[in-house]
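Before surveying the methods themselves, we first show a specimen of the format, giving the amino acid sequence and backbone structure tokens:

:::
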Amino acid sequence: MALRPAVRSAVWTERWWQSYGRLPADRQASCDRAAMALIKGSDAPGLNVKPILPDKHYLEGRISGGDRIVFRVEGSTIFFMDVVKHDDIGRYGQRPHLGR
């Protein structure tokens, strides 16, 4: 019997909750399933996790044909950043610029 991966701690940003709140109920349910699979480190049909180019600072997970979860993993914590349309994923292609 294979060991299951440890459950990660999760943090959701304010932007995540704003975007999530605008989704219809059926897409929220799909988003919930995908987020739980990411937290548990398990597979979900069609999730297709990959880095967002060019900087690969964030990762994306597919919720549906058009929606993506934007997240980042640091240590044992997963940070859920946003839920966006596939066409809007490019705005997460670069590292955030920190003020000096």
